[in-house]
Design goal:
Layout lengths: L2 E2 L5 E2 L1 E5 L28 H13 L4 E5 L9 H9 L6 E6 L4 H11 L3 E5 L5 H8 L4 H13 L6 E6 L6 H11 L2 E6 L17 H9 L4 E3 L9 E5 L5 E5 L12 E4 L4 E3 L8 E2 L1 H5 L4 H13 L19 H4 L2
Parallel strand pairs: 3-4, 3-12, 4-5, 5-6, 6-7, 7-8, 8-11
Antiparallel strand pairs: 1-2, 9-10, 10-11, 12-13, 13-14
Helix pairs in contact: 2-3, 3-5
Length: 325
Amino acid sequence: MTLTDQFGRVGTDLRVSLTDRCNLRCTYCMPEEGLNWLPRSEHLTDDELVRVVGLFVAEGVTSVRLTGGEPLLRRGLPGVVRRLAGLAPRPELSLTTNGIGLDRLAAPLAQAGLDRVNVSLDAVDPQIYARLTRRDRFHDVERGLKAAADAGLLPVKVNAVATRDGEDPVRLLSWCLDRGYNLRFIEQMPLDAGHTWDRATMLTRDELLTTLGAAFELAPVEERGSAPAERFTVDGGPATVGIIASVTAPFCGSCDRVRLTADGQVRNCLFARDEDNLRDPLRAGASDGDLVDIIRATMWRKARGHGIGRPDFVQPDRPMSSIGG
């Protein structure tokens, strides 16, 4: 079976939030004091999570990305990864993390079956990093990146939200190139907890290309498929840089993603205004078939696009830390 929507797109990429908690307080994501976290009793248990992900895999999902919040805060994470790696057919397993604690967990996660990591890192100047995240943890992330590479979680990808008050894009790309990390810039999206997103504060795809193009020779990589990042070779390659232009050049027409929140809600779009509850029916004794019916119905209702920039666009109630990346 496949998870098809009314526009013919097929969901093969599942993003699974393991927790809404985070140990950073990024200025574009949440307030300094943090948020009201979900009670742990509302999170899917390990058994529940593995069962639900198994249903998605049986419906044609081939890639599972573990997210948060900060997924490294999930207790027993290597055990969860090991169980997901045991699903048949085995999905590709990746993890998006802020990198804090990755120096300790990279090797156990690789041994458990994790295939690769994406590390969120918006600045390589420690002072800019501390200002953006409200935490002085840059060198922890630096150690985590190295540990991921040493553990064979390759290619190591770095995700950077591009803002006008952030890191110099040229410096960030140079830093990643020197260390063999694959950098992808992300346009800042309206997913902050305070609903204060301002389009004027983000760096756009075109601005990034102009800035980077003044320092490097960039050439587009034609083959993209459903990947969110538009990639460019740097100085003739083989190194590349990616830009995820969700705001100014959305790729909704080829989107293959579906999301499962930490509290067991299935979402057909990052910007969806509604979601369907899997956790409560699961705990009430629903069969696998009952849960699959909910998943299929959610996917079928997926909108043609996220609608950012349209007069009727409304930011989702959940912030990014609660939805999952």
